[in-house]
From TrEMBL:
Residues annotated as domain ThuA-like: 3-211
Taxonomic classification: Bacteria, Pseudomonadati, Pseudomonadota, Alphaproteobacteria, Hyphomicrobiales
UniProt superkingdom: Bacteria
Protein name according to UniProt: Type 1 glutamine amidotransferase
Keyword vocabulary terms for this entry: Glutamine amidotransferase
Amino acid sequence: MRKAMIVWGGWPGHDPDLCASMIRGWLKAEGFEVRIETTTAAFADPAIHDLSLIIPIYTMSKIEKAEALNLCDAVRSGVGLAGHHGGMCDAFRESVDYQFLCGGQWVAHPGNIIDYKVDLTKPDDPIMTGLKSFEHRSEQYYMHVDPAIEVLATTTFSGEHAPWIEGVVMPVVWKKRYGAGRVFYSSLGHRAYELDVPEIRTLMIRGMLWAARE
C-alpha cells in the first residue's frame, strides 16, 4: 500500500482542515494509507523519505530551514509532491528552497473573487484528458513561476482590475520534476467547496496520482 502524508495548517481562510479531509478521502479511495499532520515539524521527519506522496496545505506561515531542506531532499529522492492554491504555492514565503521545489509563488489576485476562464493547454495530457476549458468564479492567481514547469492549463487576465497586466497568460495547472520526484500544482481551490467542482476534483486526483511514487 502506498503511503501519503497531508500536512495542514497556517491561515484558516483556505479551509485547510476541510481540504485535508477531502483529499484524504480521495487518496484512501485510491488505495493509499494516509497520515495527517498539523505542524511543519512533520517535514523534518526522516520517515518522509519512505512516502509515496506529500500534500502540503499550509498557507503563509513559516518553515524552518531544516524542515524545508528535508522536504526538498525527500522529493529529490523520488517522493511525490502535490497541492493546490495557497496551501502549496503561497506557503512559507521566506523559503526560497521551498519555492524552488514547488515551481511557483503567489503574488496577487487582482479583483479578489471574480469570474474567469481556465484554458487547457495540453488537453491530451493524461491528467487533463477528457476535460475541457471551463469558467470559474474564485481568486484568479497571479504567480511568479519557474520557466521549467510543464503548463497544463492557463488563464488570461482581462486587465479590469490591474490594467498593466491586460492579456497576460498565467499558468494555472502545472507539473514538473525535482530530481527524481514529481511535482504537481493547481492554483484552483480557494475554499474547500471549490475542490468539488468536477473539473477541479478530477485534475487534482489525477495530478496527485501522477506525482505519487509507485
